[in-house]
Write a structure and sequence with these properties.
35% helix, binds (3R)-3-hydroxy-3-methyl-5-(phosphonooxy)pentanoic acid
């Protein structure tokens, strides 16, 4: 079995414990939202996904602004608040940086998210991507976006996809050592011009992290065994839709994939339900806008109550007017 340390050494060609050559580094990385979700792991140690995923990288600087500085002890500030070393966000960030620390190195991390943190809005994707970028700069590594995606995945699976713009595909790979699992631009997207509205139902931190929900649901849900085959079909449908530039076919399978994932969660023991009453009402509204009013809009939902809605880029103004009219808390990215 390959350990995390051996894997990092393989990606970095044995340079992973090199002392930092810079005192400090700063990076911004955008977040991304999965259209066809990553859910389940084929290897927990290396955080290798059970299924491939397709995502949309957010525009307009929605993501994480992070600075890492060498320090006398580990410290972390998130959105202006100093975190206790017991905070799960502090622990997972430092556990990630442990993989790259030279002897006697401590880090001071300051992160400002331009999206609400931990509300199922993929702040961990941009957060771990930005931490990776800061390490690369501090240590003076020359790495391709693919190699950066392979490192960031150890922090958060979805972070691997943030190193590419547009529509991105993360290949689950099949090798045990994880060396064929990385993200890249999804090839058949040239003619598809999509935008996304993030619809905020709740800005609070979610009750259960995606990591915990993933573990519980894949161990206990009555739909867990079906997920890989259903997902494979969804992935093929999405790739065909992108190739044909068929927005409706893409939207249809994006909704199917999210609905199946939330049903899988609901059938876990204990049952995991991220919906708030407003989530259900909003999902119904999106379907109504499409089926009654003829708008090409489709939703997706991650491990939280908020929804994301995709639509063709040409409709940005109309969608903006509609969302304003409805008095919704939203941003378009
Ligand atoms: O990257 P993680 O470990 O937070 O898991 C991401 C899970 C989803 O956001 C629900 C799906 C995805 O592909 O981003």
């Amino acid at each position: 079995m390959t350990t995390r340390e051996e894997y990092v050494a393989n990606v970095l060609d044995n340079e992973h414990r090199r002392p930092a050559i810079k005192q400090s580094a700063q990076a911004f990385m955008p977040s991304n939202v999965a259209l066809i979700k990553y859910w389940g792991k084929r290897d927990a140690e290396l955080n290798l996904p059970l299924v491939s995923s397709i995502s949309y990288t957010l525009h307009e600087n929605y993501g994480s602004n992070t600075r890492v500085t060498l320090s006398s002890e580990d410290r972390m500030e998130l959105d202006g608040m100093a975190l206790s070393p017991k905070d799960p966000a502090f622990q997972s960030a430092m556990r990630f940086l442990d993989l790259f620390r030279a002897k006697g190195e401590f880090f001071d991390i300051t992160t400002l998210n331009t999206i609400p943190t931990a509300a199922g809005l993929a702040s961990s994707a941009s957060g771990f991507a930005a931490l990776t970028e800061c390490m690369v700069l501090m240590k003076g590594w020359t790495l391709s976006p693919r190699s950066k995606s392979m490192l960031a995945r150890l922090g958060s699976g979805s972070a691997a996809r943030s190193f590419f713009s547009g529509i991105v595909m993360m290949d689950k790979g099949t090798q045990k050592d994880g060396m064929d699992c990385y993200a890249g631009t999804c090839k058949p997207q040239a003619r598809m011009r999509t935008r996304m509205a993030v619809l905020l139902v709740d800005r609070e931190r979610k009750a259960m992290s995606s990591r915990e929900a993933m573990r519980i649901s894949m161990e206990t849900s009555s739909l867990a065994d079906e997920w890989p085959a259903v997902h494979k079909k969804h992935l093929a449908q999405a790739l065909a839709a992108l190739k044909d530039a068929d927005f409706h076919a893409l939207g249809y399978v994006v909704e199917e994939n999210a609905l199946f994932l939330h049903e899988l969660l609901r059938k876990s023991k204990p049952s995991i339900v991220y919906d708030k009453p407003e989530t259900v009402a909003l999902r119904n509204n999106i379907v109504k806008w499409r089926e009654k009013d003829g708008l090409p809009v489709y939703f997706t939902q991650d491990a939280g109550p908020n929804l994301k809605m995709i639509f063709p880029m040409t409709l940005k103004k109309d969608i903006e007017n509609l969302l304003k009219e409805q008095n919704l808390d939203y941003f378009i990215a």
